[in-house]
Amino acid sequence: MTAPAVPQARWLPQDTFAGQTALVTGGGTGLGLEISRGLAALGARVVVASRNTEHHQPFLREAEQAGWLAESHALDVREASACRDLIDGLVEQHGRLHHLVNNAAGNFVCPSHRLSANAWRAVLSIVLDGTFYCSKYAGRHMLQSGGGTQLNIVATYAWTGMPGVVHSASAKSGVLTMTKTLAAEWASYGVRVNAVAPGPFASDGAKGNLWPDDATEERIRRSVPMGRFATTSEVAAQCLWLMSPACEYVTGDCLTIDGGLSLAAGMMFGDGQRPGKRDGVR
Ligand code: HXC
Ligand code: NAP
Fold first, then answer.
1. CA nearest neighbour of 55 among 30, 87, 84
2. Which of 168, 195, 244, 267 has the least C-beta neighbours within 10 A?
3. Are strands 191-198 and 148-153 parallel, antiparallel or unpaired?
């Protein structure tokens, strides 16, 4: 027996998404790639879409070797008409779109008082506008075809806030509210809309834009109560779970996957002061 593509999703039946079509924005890198691999290994036809199709090649190569159904399309989610054309085309070609993962994002650290209007717009347009465009155009088909799932990737700073990323935090907060709104609006049509809020995990995009040096990465790592970052496989497994029939009564929810990081703000004592395994307390 071959090892599962996403080890933490091994409890899901191999045919969980068989015969279904899924669109993953930003599906060629980082978390998006892991979600694409997991969906494809569990039977879905997976369409990855982002600006640079070179980013899709590792997924396409693996899919060819594994016999997965995979497609790649160039898409800038900031263009509403491009989102509409891609999604309409997929439905025309494959009959139906069952799953949408709004994973595409842009981010970088910049003090708010120095953030230019264009820089604010760059992130808001990818994260907030892009998520809405894809949700709307996929939703139009899902409402008419018996349902589907939409999954949005946010971050815990959508509700805690975080210095240095006012653009991303504001956009993710909007996406979280969008998740709940669309979930309520579309529940009676069988469309489930959920979100996940991962803590930090390693990806080229995050490393390049958020923790470019080892010292910063280590400082962030130490602030996680579990003492480590998530793996993309751990996060992707929860995404697959939420999209699967195991969660068919779950909608409008946001699952936090952060090793306790968002709780750390409530901890009054630092390392060595609070009782914990790392302090030698049993
Ligand atoms: C200040 C910056 C900047 C920076 C860009 N800008 N980078 N300002 N500090 N580091 C400004 C530019 O000067 C410009 O403003 C404006 O933003 C647009 O820049 P462009 O380079 O033209 O934008 P574009 O080519 O569209 O690229 C979008 C991008 C880029 C968001 C800026 O970083 C990108 O493509 N990112 C995709 C990958 C990524 O970010 N992944 C991270 C995901 S991690 P002016 O005024 O000069 O014209 C994540 C959550 C992590 O999202 C959560 C951790 C807990
Ligand atoms: P990543 O690899 O940089 O992923 C970002 C993806 O978005 C890339 O594949 C990129 O592809 C795509 N993208 C960017 N702008 C786009 C646009 N305008 N149109 C279409 N696609 C676009 O980073 P990641 O860390 O895996 O992030 C994945 C998701 O997790 C994001 O939603 C992020 O906010 C979230 N998240 C990450 C962390 C973390 O610690 N890494 C924590 C919490 C939440 P192209 O360059 O080819 O366009």
1. 30
2. 267
3. parallel
pLDDT in tens, 134-150: 999 999 999 999 999 99
Three-state secondary structure call for residue 102: strand
Measured from CB, residues less than 6 Å from any atom of ligand 1 are 105-108, 110, 116, 118-119, 122-123, 155, 168, 199-200, 205-206, 209-210
With CA atoms as reference, report the closest residue to 198 among 206, 189, 190.
Answer: 206
Residue type, 143: L
Taking the CA of 58 as reference, the closest ligand is 2
Residue 1 lies in a domain: no
Using a cut of 0.90, tell me whether the model's pTM lies above it.
yes
Give the total residue count for the chain: 282
In the chain, the number of structural domains is 1
- Residue 26: give its domain's CATH number: 3.40.50.720
Element (H, E) at 242: helix 232-243
Asked if residue 2 is part of any domain, the answer here is no
**CA 199/CA 37 separation, integer angstroms:** 21
